Amino acid sequence: MPELQKLKKLLRSKASPAKAKIFERFFKTAPGQYGHGDVFLGLTVPTQRQIAKRFYHLSLADIQKLLLSKIHEERFTALVILVHQFTHAPVPLSRHSGMPLAAAPEGDHWGVGATPKQIYNFYLKNAKRVNNWDLVDTSAPQIVGEYLRPLSPLRGEMERGVLVQLAHSKNLWERRIAIVATYTFIRAGQFDETLVISESLLRDKHDLIHKAAGWMLREVGKKSEPTLKKFLGQHAHEMPRTMLRYAIEKLSPNERQKFLIAKQRSLARRRRASSSP
Predict the structure, then answer these.
(1) Is the pTM of this model over 0.85?
(2) HSE toward the beta carbon, residue 243, CA cutoff 13 A
C-alpha cells in the first residue's frame, strides 16, 4: 500500500465521531464562520503527532495532496511532517565559503531531500491551505519565521518584505501567518517586524487577527515591557479591543487600566464626532 494511503488509513482508524462534533463547533465550521467546510475525524493533537512520526519521510508531492484535503487532521498531520522536514533539511553550502546560503548558486550541492528554501517556498505556495488558526500556529513560526528570522543564514536580502506582503493579503490565513511567524523573531529578542506588522493590522476586521496580533505583542512585552508600552502609548487608542486586551494581559493592573482608559476616551471622542451635526 502506498505510504499516503497508509497514513490516511491510520488517521481514520483513530477517528472519534463524538470528538469530531466537538471540534466542528470549536473550530467554527458552520456556514458563514471562518472554518466553514472543514471536516474533522476527531483526533487529538498528540495522536496526530504520533502518527506523523511514522511518516516523516513523506514526499512533498504526497504532503501537497494532504494539504488539499478537506479533512482537518490530514492537513494538520501534513504540516507536522513539513515542520520536521524543514527542521532537519540539508542546508546548501557555498562551494567557496562553506557557509549556508539562502539561495545556492546553480551547481551548488543541495544534498538529499528538500532544502529549507524549497520547503519554505512550498509552504508559501500552499499558504491558503493552512486554513485554520491551529494549522497556522503550529507551522508558521517553525517554517516561515525560522527561514526569515533576522540574522538567519537562510534568508536572502530580497525576501525580507514577504511578511509585510502577507499582512496585506485579502486571505485571512496569510495575514495570520504574517504576524504569528514573527514569534520566532520575538524569542530571539528581535521585535521590529512584529511591531510593523501589528501596526499594519490595526484596522483589520477579523477577530482571529486581533487575537494573533495581541498575542504577539504580549510576547514582545514578556521580553521587553518598555518596547510594548511604547507601542501601546502610540496605538492603544486605535487598537481593536480584543487586540489591546491580549497585548496588556501580563502588565500590572494599573498599567492595564491606563491603556484601557486611553481606548475608552478614544471611543468617546469618536462617538461625539459622529453625532455632531
Answers:
(1) yes
(2) 29
List pLDDT tens digits, range 176-205: 999 999 999 999 999 999 999 999 999 999
| Secondary structure of the chain as H, E, C letters | CCHHHHHHHHHHHCCCHHHHHHHHHHCCCCCCCCCCCCECCCCCHHHHHHHHHCCCCCCHHHHHHHHCCCEHHHHHHHHHHHHHHHHCCCCCECCCCCCECCCCCCCCCCCCCCCHHHHHHHHHHCHHHCCCHHHHHCCHHHHHHHHHCCCCCCCCHHHCCHHHHHHCCCCHHHHHHHHHCCHHHHHCCCCHHHHHHHHHCCCCCCHHHHHHHHHHHHHHHHHCHHHHHHHHHHHHHHCCHHHHHHHCCCCCHHHHHHHHHHHHHHHHHHHHHHHCC
Nine-digit cell string for 1:
500500500
pLDDT, residue 97, reads 37
Dist. CA 265–CA 244, nearest whole Å: 14
Q: Quick one: CA torsion of 121, 62, 29, 24, rounded to 10 degrees? A: -130
Decide which of 17 and 161 is more confident. 17
CB 193 within 8 A of CB 155: no
Q: Whole-angstrom Cα distance, residue 89 to residue 119? A: 9
The CA distance from 203 to 116, in Å, is: 33
